[in-house]
Amino acid sequence: MSKTELFFKSELMQNDIDEAYEAIIEESESGEVGYYLLPEDMQTLTEIRQFCENYDFDAIKNVVVIGIGGSSLGTKAIDYMLAHTENRNDKNLIFMENVDPNEIKHNLKNVNFEESFFIMISKSGGTIETTSHVKYILDRYDISLGDAAFVKHFAIITDPLSPLDQFAKEHTLTTFHLPLNVGGRFSVFTPVGLLPLMILGYDVEKILFGARELKESFFAKNEDTLIKKAYFYASSQENLPINVLFSYSSSFKYFNDWYVQLWGESLGKINRDGKKVGLTPIALVGSVDQHSFLQLIIEGPLNKTVTMIKVEDFNNEMKIPDITIPHLEKTNFINEHSFNELINAQCDATMESIKDQGVDVDMITLNGLDEKSVGEMIFYYELLTSLTGYFLNVNTYNQPGVELGKVILQKKFEK
Amino acid sequence: MSKTELFFKSELMQNDIDEAYEAIIEESESGEVGYYLLPEDMQTLTEIRQFCENYDFDAIKNVVVIGIGGSSLGTKAIDYMLAHTENRNDKNLIFMENVDPNEIKHNLKNVNFEESFFIMISKSGGTIETTSHVKYILDRYDISLGDAAFVKHFAIITDPLSPLDQFAKEHTLTTFHLPLNVGGRFSVFTPVGLLPLMILGYDVEKILFGARELKESFFAKNEDTLIKKAYFYASSQENLPINVLFSYSSSFKYFNDWYVQLWGESLGKINRDGKKVGLTPIALVGSVDQHSFLQLIIEGPLNKTVTMIKVEDFNNEMKIPDITIPHLEKTNFINEHSFNELINAQCDATMESIKDQGVDVDMITLNGLDEKSVGEMIFYYELLTSLTGYFLNVNTYNQPGVELGKVILQKKFEK
Fold first, then answer.
1. Which residues in B lie closer than 8 A to residue A278 (C-beta atoms)?
2. Which residue of the set A97, A265, A371, A376 is catalytic?
3. How big, in percent rounded to 5, are the helix, strand and coil portions of chain B?
4. pLDDT of residue A200
5. What CATH fold (topology level) applies to the domain A32-202?
6. Quick one: which of A254, A234, A253, A255 has its CA closest to A243?
7. Higher model confidence: residue A155 or residue A3?
8. Would you say the CATH fold of B34-202 matches that of B3-28+207-400?
9. Which of A228, B253, B294, B334 is the most exposed, having the fewest neighbouring CB atoms within 10 Å of its CB?
10. pLDDT at residue B219, rounded to an integer
11. Beta-bridge partners for B56
């Protein structure tokens, strides 16, 4: 298991901690919030495995995920965290997200339809980006909705009985369902993430196993640290409105984006007392962003918390060779050390320099970047989000604020 | 020229506006801040052009930039904004930035030394990431410092008379200088950006021309909007500590990262009155981040400003075809419109829904994504940063806060 150390004080009485455990357990048992059950959902896993075993994926070079927000961010996060591992096969993973025409052109440049498997993901089927991409792809590759090629090369992931589900049924398309009580940003352990990740070769069961271990520990009330951290963030939201995640590996690049959606969209709400609340996520990659954002953390206003993420063992022995560059002898202190040591020492040094300024910091240490630890990290942040939402007194699972823009958009074309 | 519309009130007397112009003109004339002069520096451009014409770049497939922070972000930003244009040749642009060993392995996987041109960038030569990468590359490709292959395949960009400059001179390496009065994050119009961008085929002179047009307009005191915007941000820094840039094209992905460094590192400072000040940059890509961060802007605390960036003409006629997907007829309102129209209508709709919540918004509209408009955008943000720094009463051009971490790092290895 990974570990978390808090370097700030979060004063919370034991009975408040117990109440928070109970609230989450109750939420889980109520059936209203479905993501808690996903780490144990072996039936879905079996269905996906059967599909993968029966499909000729050897002939597939490109896995094209057509989906946006919660339909793409989790898969991208996990693939990028695990891309260096040996399970990953060499299929291209392509995301159709934005409606930027230059990006669409670039994405599909080398995509041959016969060698590609398209996964269309939308809870309702009404996502304008996703349907526009599907229409474009049909037209570009000259495929009609009734064609055998369409049935063979497309899978649909959607809510049961949604309009998209009805379409898929009528056209006998391969379909997987999202549970109705799981929102997009909590959906990576549904077919939304599991299907593409299994096609890419990952041991998806191990990812779920990592999540399950943390879940069991939390539901056995052994994760007080998580609750203290959530309470600290929620109770400091006026003075410390910004939560920085500083992840020391390039592998976290898209985990960071996943975190930003999860945190921002779950907690930025009008709460049950009618107050606008929320916490602003910022996600950085170390050591790169020491050369970008760190100055602001150190000398700027004290309005941020910082969470460092460190990977203990990169499973990579690469070293800085014992070479002296004349006039640059000052850099020799790192010679013959591994890059793994260097990046972790940078993480520690940065944390110390941040703490030195009185910034509230905590450090998550992962043993390594493998399926299990990645599953655990994802579930850790989902639980932290639920707990922070509980303390902020918001509905963590909806996103009513984005509807108005969709209405305005449609009106612009109804002339 | 692009245009900016402010949808918030920035009360500033004409004589305060004039004072701000004068302060920037004085800063430019004092010689202490060098970036103002770069758009007119035709001599450096000529040197770079001569080098490029005399070097056999036809034999080069990979341009490897070894540098971090200001040494990489600007080049990456411009290349990504212009990647779709016809001037861009098909050379790979690779950045060696992080010391993550898995990333280094991935970056160099298909890099053959003979087909590659390496550009090492460091103001002093003491950047630990950059020297470690260079040492690793020398070892990996079995190159000694005295080898002709080293001299042929490496160029150095550094401050005049720096330790790295001395090394380069002694080894007769191709060297370009950064002006001493130009800091890393303001250096994209020095050889730091110009050399790799010219090798990639871009019309670098046009980029500078775009910057020069804006500069001349500002120095002729025709850019009051810029000053009003800077004043608004600086004077609202306590209530509105977060400045969101919401860019409606995937092409802005790395421009966003460049903005984050420029804004965060320039303005996050202990100011001349001894106060910790600063503004927190957030950068988003639309429409993608409507499905991520928008909810927080709409319903969360009113502690953010938002700048929308829209590209009027993507120079891409791609359309959503007239296809009806049964049960998803509701999405047909967009059929037969171009993706260009769709993404811009999303930008407008999002802006309206944000304004509706009382958020302070402005909109920058670019004519297109070409060399000239990109040069203008870069210089626009550099000027905005200088002006905001002026109103915050900080030294916009240093970064003293990041030194402690470097000292701590070195101590960790001196045992």
1. 296, 299-301
2. A265
3. 50, 15, 30
4. 98
5. Rossmann fold (3.40.50)
6. A234
7. A155
8. yes
9. B253
10. 97
11. none
Is A105's Cβ below 8 Å from some Cβ in B? yes
The pair of structure tokens assigned to A130 is: 């996703």
Is B302 in Cβ contact with A280 (below 8 Å)? no
* Ramachandran angles phi, psi of A84, nearest 5°: -85, -5
Locus of tokens 């060098």: B34
Is the pLDDT reported for residue A161 higher than 80?
yes
Q: Which of B302, B51, B25, B74 is nearest to B185 (CA)?
A: B74
**pTM recorded for the entire structure:** 0.97
- The CA distance from B17 to B23, in Å, is 10
Distance of CA B109 to the CA centre of its chain: 27
* Residue A307 CB contacts under 8 Å (≥ 6 apart), including other chains: A243, A244, A245, A246, A361, A362, A363, A364
Residue B334 DSSP symbol: G
Q: What is the pLDDT of residues B108-133, one digit of tens each?
A: 999 999 999 999 999 989 999 999 99
The rounded distance, in Å, linking the Cα atoms of A374 and A366 is 9
Q: Which of A106, A275, A337, A406 is catalytic?
A: A406
Do residues A159 and A180 lie in contact, with contact meaning Cβ atoms separated by under 8 Å? yes
Average pLDDT score over chain A = 96
Averaged over B293-300, what is the pLDDT?
Answer: 97
The encoded tokens of residue A369 equal: 């970047």
B164 neighbourhood in chain A, CB within 8 Å: 327-328
pLDDT at B361 over 80: yes
pLDDT tier at B415, thresholds 50, 70, 90: low
The pLDDT score that the predictor gives to residue A415 is 65
Out of A5-9, A51-55, B282-286, B289-293, least confident range: A5-9
B123 HSE (CA, 13 A, CB side): 14
C-beta of residue A266 within 8 angstroms of C-beta of residue A389: yes
Angle (CA) B313 B317 B320, round 5°: 115
Catalytic residue list contains A291: yes
Architecture of domain B34-202 in this structure? 3-Layer(aba) Sandwich (3.40)
Distance from CA of B377 to the nearest CA of A (A): 19
* Res. B1 pLDDT band, cuts 50 70 90: low
Question: Max alpha carbon distance in chain A (Å)?
Answer: 72
Cα angle B365, B366, B372; round to 5: 155
* CATH dotted code for B3-28+207-400: 3.40.50.10490
Of A295, A321, A333, the CB nearest to B264: A295
> Does residue B10 register a pLDDT over 90?
no
The ranges assigned to domains in chain A are: 3-28+207-400, 32-202
Number of Cβ within 10 Å of residue B43's Cβ equals 8
Confidence of residue B414 (pLDDT cuts 50, 70, 90): confident
Q: Which helix (H) or strand (E) holds B129?
A: helix B128-140
Identify the pLDDT of residue A1: 65
Nearest residue to B57 via CA among B110, B18, B115, B5: B115
State which residue of chain B sits closest to A351, comparing Cα positions.
B405
Q: Which residues pair with B88 in a beta bridge?
A: none
Say what the pLDDT of residue B224 is.
Answer: 95
Residues in contact with B8: Cβ distance below 8 Å, sequence separation at least 6, in sequence order: B232, B305, B360, B361, B362
Q: What residues have CB less than 8 Å from A131, skipping those under 6 apart?
A: A122, A125, B325, B328, B331
